[in-house]
Structures are given as structure tokens and as C-alpha cells.
């Protein structure tokens, strides 16, 4: 193919591959969606190389799909139209730490854990924690969030500037180093969450935070899901600055105990973390105890040492793997909807009832502090009834959310899995999004077949 010949003309042989194993590695992500091979995988080292790749691809109208670590959950990186998969693993440099500005500049292939290891030397940390050790480019592409978003915000809140290579090879910046600006359109917000459909990120400037003086984590158990969600609303309404507040239902706690060798009470549970100075934390904890005393809670226990706290959050983050281990031979589907807090209890109750109605194995976890919950579903891909029921279940909880002012995805993104709900969620605004896509990528080469239905 002519475009491959042109790529080979400027890329070293060890940074361009049509090897079957390499192609297979870039044909899938962590989702249940069907894999599809790219034609070629390339490994750039800088923005100029990405720009040249995009020029060639645009000239030949060849699809380009950016690839980080492949940890996405809605098929974002699957190249259904073949073409070029751009692997950013070699662009993994931390370019500059700016402690006085609470900023860091990185390449897109830097992982969250690598960044925090470096930031720790400066008494800083990066806040967004989606669970998986994803790349920062991928996290920006999907507008990731996670357990700490209730206090620090989501990925979009951390992006100060992006260096982006557009479809025609143009290299541009979306922001600057200033803490705020009233100048022009908010391109940071536009490109963050665009899932590789508007451009390839080659550099990110991100907000970071000082490591708090003290961190305390604990578990509160409840007799009902309703009581657990009510506790979340009451705690947030009281102005208590929790850093994380996560719901894990009784079915998920059962799987966690098996997988992580814990012995947590198999009841609806809130995992709660407080951060700050010692005096302020003690006040927040006492206030939280008073709030819980008025609700139908069972216990409220704190993990005193760092190792126990790490074990607690490790257990929360490995819920999906616990289900995989508990149901060998079945495929995992993780749903992802977000609702106003006032609608959350009803949504979770409806989701749990629907699990029974569709006879599916699974449980519910969620970043309930911001109204985002997930159902972890296990189903047999060889069983047409289970596959159909899983799809019906996902449709049920999405439509429940949309009918109550929510979103079909709180953090996983659209990819291909949530395309079918875009018109219902966005209405006329979807046409504006398509117009933006067309103006920046008229040949539709950037991650085609994602986000927009009937593209």
C-alpha cells in the first residue's frame, strides 16, 4: 500500500509494524466489543512525527486510531475501518514539573502511576484515579474520572493545555498556563473527551495538587442500598469534604472477599476517604458519625494504617477482576450511567431489580458522590439469551438515567457501545457536534465509526 511505503520512508523499521501479533494487540481494548485488526501500527516519538503520519493518512484518506494502553471500556481504540493504529507508548516523558504553578507537562504515553511517582518528590500528586493505570493521553481522550472526582473533579477539570495534531497534520495548542481565561472558545473542554475523533494529543499540561497532611479511610455498612445513598447525600449536603465516597453493594462485597481475601460484612457498603489537616479531619469524621447515626447504618469502621487503607482501595478497584475470577468462562460488561444525586437511589434500586428480572449475575458499585454508578455484569457470550438480556439490561438503566436528566456515560465514554444513545441524550446538539467534527476532519479519518451513530 502506498501510504505504508510513505510511512516507511521516514520511520525507522523498529517503529512501524505489520506483525500479526502486534496487530492483534491493537485490535481490542478491555471491553466486550468485537476486535478488529489495523493494517499497520506505528510508534512515534514526537509531535512532528505524528504530524507527518496525519498528513500521509489525510492525503490517502486512511483511518487513524490513537492507542494508549488499551484499557478503555467502550471499544474506543478498536480500528473497525482498519488503517493506522498510532501507539503512543514511546511518548512517555514527563517534560516539566512546575510546583509553584501546581502544573505538570507530560507526553500522552505517561501512565498515571509513573506521573505520581515523580510528583511525590515534589510533595504533589495527580488527582484523577480511574482505577486502571491508564495513560494520561487516553484519560484525556475519554474524559476519565474515578474515585476522587467528588473532591478534585474529573479529567476535564485538570487540563490546562493540550498540544493536538489535527487531521491535516496541523499542530496546535488548546490553552495556556494561566489558571483562567475569558479569551475565545474553550478548546480544552472540546478536545478533552473527544475520543480521538478530533485530533491526536501529543502533550498535556495538567493541574496537580499538594499531598495532604493526613489521609483516613473507612467503611460504613448499611442494611439497605437506600440508606447508603441517603448517607451520601446527607454527608455532601453538610459540606463535609470527603475525598472519595464509593458504594459497593452486597453482591460485589461477596466477590471482593473471595478475590481479595478480605472479610468485609456482606452488606451495602460505603468506602469513604477523608483528606486534610488532622484537626479538620477529626471534625469531619465526628460530623459524619452524627449523620450516620440518624440513618439505618450498621457499622462505621476506620482503617488506621496505610497498608490497611491501601488494601481497602485495592479491593474497591479490583471489583471487576473479582467478578471475572468468580465467574470463569463468562464475559464482563461494565455499565456506566450518571444521574442527579436526587435520582440516584431510585436508579440503583431499579438496576438491582432489573438484574433479577433479566436473570443476570452481577452487582453494583459507583462513585456515588457525583451520581455515577456501574453495574458489573457477567454473561456467557455463547448463550444468545444471556447476550440479549445483557443488552436489554444496559438499555434499561441508560433509558432510566436519560429520562431523569442523566447521561448514558459518566466516565467510560461513548466509543461504539454508547453511540445508539447519543441522539436521545443530546438532541439537536448532536448536529452541532457533527459539524465540529466535519470542519476539523472533513475526510473522517480520525477514529471513524466512534461517537456518532449512522456515520
From TrEMBL:
- Mention one GO biological process in which this protein takes part, according to its record: lactate catabolic process
Is Cell inner membrane among this UniProt entry's keywords?
Answer: no
E.C. number: 1.1.2.4
Which cofactors, if any, are listed as required?
FAD
Looking at the keywords, is Oxidoreductase present?
Answer: yes
What region holds the FAD-binding PCMH-type domain? 34-211
One GO molecular-function entry: FAD binding
For this UniProt record, the keywords arranged alphabetically read as follows: FAD, Flavoprotein, Oxidoreductase, Transit peptide
List, alphabetically, the InterPro entries matched. Answer: FAD-bd_oxidored_4_C, FAD-bd_PCMH, FAD-bd_PCMH-like_sf, FAD-bd_PCMH_sub2, FAD-linked_Oxase-like_C, Oxid_FAD_bind_N, Vanillyl_alc_oxidase_C-sub2
Q: Which family does it belong to?
A: Belongs to the FAD-binding oxidoreductase/transferase type 4 family.
* Name under which the protein is recorded: D-lactate dehydrogenase (cytochrome)
Q: Which organism is it from?
A: Virgibacillus phasianinus
